[in-house]
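Session log. Operator J.P. requested a structure for one protein chain; no other inputs attached. Running the standard single-chain path with token output.
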Amino acid sequence: VFPLAFKRDIKVIAAVFSDSIDRLTGVSFRVGKPWQDQYNVRDIAERLGGGGHTMAAAARSQNGSELYESVCLEMKNLAKRTSEELNTIIL
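Structure written below.
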């Protein structure tokens, strides 16, 4: 998913998923290389109880709907702060 999105000039991606093994919901954040100095997804992941690197970070939760809502809010705030367009795709 990430390589395809970056080919379309998407700058930051948040992918929320359900892990069938441990029954947790996770989110994975990625920043495209051309924008690596403009965005820091580690800060977002840390606010959600996770961590990682500035270009690749993640978080997990037992409460999937709460995590999803938090991710949506974080991405909306990021878009607002950077004057970017926010696109949401649900698969």
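Operator note: The helical segments are 2-7, 41-47, 64-82.
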